């Protein structure tokens, strides 16, 4: 195996190991770094881990910059609206703050669960739809798209993404409730059709969601594999499972899935639901013991294979030198190999002490601190309500007040009753008419394709050059 030589007899510096909680796994034939130990997360290979995982500070910055950019853009549009409507004075527009948008989104995230359960859909669809809504509003603002419309579109998309596809007409009818008002049903259907592609674009067409509910299910099964003196009784496990599922539902109303891995969220929910931390501590200790044994055995196997390959390569080099250059060449090759063996080489393995101390790739203190942070997020949401100022009727009233302001600052370009909306529609129709006139005045004036409607933003892919 190739290795980088170092000058003289300088010792190779010790290797620093970063947390293994999120790691992109690679298997190069000649590694430049030691192979990582600890559990290799398949989650780390997903688009969710690559594109939808942020630090807390990065989330705050993204939302702040998006809100500021939206306010500036809407201020210009509202100025155009007032100028076009010959308004004597431009009234002050009550734009929403980042906290206002988050409170409104959280209120409608609760509605996701209510609608999904009313439709008899599984928790899987609820989790995916909730994730879709939160991802959408990382790239868009409530001042452009009301959460009510986004929620129903995301539920419809999630039902297809999770193989519980719904008929759009039936979906729109159920949303209308008992009234069966044809106008309401058609409005629901039209809303989903108009927003479905836009939402997909905002999701970057990444529909696969790795939810913590899967990790929680596996964790509850794994807890039963603990030794008899550590495994919980069946009745106790049922209570812990119910409480953990409740905390998991609350976690969907937080930013936990943007910051932490699904397995960490699931473990935090069990830790918060259990009477004490002993159950989770026993499970972690069992995982540590197994990971330590596996990591040390794997290192020993790799080392033995590397030594065998090195010895085989050395014999082949000496044999080749003897065939081509005789005994003198063989002696020279032996001297070269001896000198190379005496030179410090790059270490391709971590020390046994490192593996013994942190076989999971992160220390117990680091893991405990992460679980405590997740439980703090869940507890804050449970006690703080939608707006973070406490639960109850006053909290709902605050959300209703935010909803009223949202309607007052809504983008005029998306309101059919506004002057700007009508102006944009007229401009689009004029442009389409001019384009059609230009086509009909050309060489293909008699073509039957002139009256074929063209979809918005549609472009024909050019023929490949031969």
UniProtKB/TrEMBL annotation:
Keywords: Cyclin. Gene3D superfamilies: Cyclin-like. SMART domains: CYCLIN. The keyword Transcription does not apply. Residues 110-201 form the Cyclin-like domain. GO terms for biological process: regulation of transcription by RNA polymerase II. Transmembrane segments: none annotated. Residues 404-466 are annotated as: Disordered. Belongs to the cyclin family. This is Related to Cyclin H.
